[in-house]
Amino acid sequence: MPSLASDLAHYLRSNESVRAELDTTLRVADGELPSALRGVLFRNGPGKQEVYGTRYDHPFDGDGMVTRFAFDGHSVRYRNRFVRTREYVAEERAGRMLFRSFGTNVPGGLRRNLLRLRFKNAANTSVVFHGGKLLALWEGGLPHWLDAETLETRGRYDFAGELRNRGGLIDRLVAPELPFSAHPKTDVDTGELVNFGTLMGVHNQLVSYRVDTGGEMRAPQLTPLDSLSFVHDFVLTANYCVYYLPAIAFRVAATLLGFATPVGSLAGKRGGSATLLLVPRDGRPPVSFPTRAGFVFHFANGYEDAQGRVILDGMRMDSLPSAASIRALMSGEEVRIPPTVPTRFVLDLRSGEVIETPLAETLADLPTIDPRRSGRSYRHFWSIAATPGQRTPFYHRVLHFTHAEGDSAAREIIRDFGEDLPGEPLFVPAGPNASEGDGFVLTLVYRADAHRSDLYVLRADDLRTVCRLELPHHIPSGFHGTWVPA
Question: I need a labelling partner for 19 at 20 to 30 A (CA). Which of 72, 174, 210, 257 fits?
Answer without folding.
Answer: 72
